[in-house]
Amino acid sequence: MRRQIITLIFLTIAAHVWAAPNTAWPGTGEVYYSAEAEVMCAVWKENVAVELGRQEKAIAFSVSQDRGRTWAKPDLIIISGESPTSLEAVIDHFKSPTLIFISENKDLKRQRLYFTSLASVEPRVIFESQDAISAPRLTSYPELMVASWETRYLERATAYLAVSLDQGRHFGAARPSATAGLPLPPAAPTLNWPSDGSVTRLVSPEISYRIDSADPMIARVDISFDKAFRPDKTWSFNNLTLPGSSESRFQLPVELPDGKYYLRLAAFDGLAESAARTVSFTVDTRPPVITLLTPTGEADQATIIISGEVDEPSALTLNGQPLITEARGRFSRELPLLAGNNIITLIATDAAGNTGRAAATILFDLAAPHLKILKPKATDWFKPGSTIFVEADVSDAQNDIEDESEGIVSLEGKSLTDRPAYDASAAKLSGFITLPSDLPDGKYQAKLSLRDLAGNLAVKPFTIAVDNSPPRLTISRGEMARSSSPTLLPMPVDDAGSGLDISGTLISINGVSLNVLLSGEAQELFAAAIMPLADGTYEVSVLPRDKVGNTGARSVFNLVVDTRPPQPGALSSQGRLFSIISSFSAGPNPFSPRNDGNMYFIYNFSSAADRLKIYIFDLAGTLVWQKELTNVTADSLAWNGVDHFGRTAANGVYSYLMAATAGGQMEIRRGKLIILQ
Questions:
Q1: Could you write out the DSSP letters of every residue in 282-304?
Q2: Planar angle of CA 191, 195, 196, nearest 5 degrees
Q3: I need a surface site. Which of 176, 182, 374, 469 has the fewest CB within 10 A?
Q4: Do residue 150 and residue 18 come from a single domain?
């Protein structure tokens, strides 16, 4: 921007701009001229006749948009009873002409400093004083405008400034410019929403805050995926906040995908910025999913059990009544039925207010018989062509089922030849049926049905599982299994159907038979040696058999027994390090989920680990959190302090265990963790 005081070209400009009525041409005067880009502005003082015999001091101005080739018709600024002086015209960063000037009321012995945008011509008072005001100046910046001036009383002069954050529509309070070199930062804003950990289903949520200030402020709003607010992962916005607002609101102009975000909010008064408020919040637009496990279709008794699970922490209702969920979102509730169709409605509402629904209609027919399958059980397996026993309890309120009535068993919609019979004295329907001999492996939907004398039909579905495949060895010939125990040896045998028959599976090591048992973890198969085995390599022979009598081929593999504890840096016979974990750390410790966000388990391995498990327990030994990874190299694993039920862990001392497995060996690291909010 440039400012010049030009008197020699006054007549040239006047020839373009002078055409205003009711004005008298001043014989002399100064023209104030400011120019930026194509825009120019001429400003001068006038004596204007406002009524017969009375004149007012006025400011006349005209604007050119083409570097002075043509000028707009002059306009006037009149402040009744006051005389303007010290005119200062500026073209701001938006290429709009603005004006700052002093006006004096001699009757009241008062001076005022005015600002006006010449596009709107609405002068606004920036400052007023009984002392003399002088040296007004206006400086425009991209996001703010600064007015400066002086006051003088006797021999004392004081310099002031005032800041506008909205191009002159509002100015803050005047402050001595001697303090502008080291301005005090404004008070930090108060966040109303979000609070730390808030959840919303709105993709463009509204930020609510309060700034306690008598001056206009700019709220600086940063939204980021990253807690460190890296620029490539952060949106930044400014929102003007006027004084006197009890609550200010700013709706984000972007749509946020589901996920966790960090919000940073600070106040800026044009000279200094406040401390920032930082919180996290989550956008969640996905409704909970309810899976109804039982019952389905038709009920055979007047009271049933409603059970299922919800896939995320939610407030759950069953037919409008609260229903408490247990571990992993599971629920169960006994529900009485009325005769006829019973409508079951489940509604789950998560922390963000998303609602998921599940509904079922259960028919309870008092007139029809009802069946309860006793055999086969859901865990039973059969070979194709097997003869199996089917048995069901029968309840009939009408007591009109004829003794020795035959029921029907259907498999995948086709009725079988064999028919079970009804025993009225025992109130049971039972009999032997033969399965088709060509059934492939798998589970099949079967139905048992029985009709009473009135023609009412009772139908009950059940499952028949078929297994015609023998167990198999899961290790290739030439591969080695490993054990660090002299008596408990891993057996790599698997059966995907009915499961391995432990008593029927024959295992020998170097010709000596072994007992077989199942471990509690992942149902792994182990063999128990009669005598402790010395370290070394053994030949193991396995003849596996499953629970329905399928027998696999005899298989042979090598087993390495190594009970020596690993020594740091020592090499095995294969030339690899026994030590699996080369470095390990956990922190921060103490850990605050609210302030730190995550804690990290940081590890390095001498080579890739086959499996990594990390467990966290409270002092009572209850498992709070666990994580399992496979094929792990050097990395880190984060925990946000939330347990398996979606709750933030309470303050206290916790223990952790990290177990790494590689090449059949396991190495464990333990430690303690303090959670302190």
A1: EE--PPP-EEEEE--SB-SSSEE
A2: 125
A3: 182
A4: yes
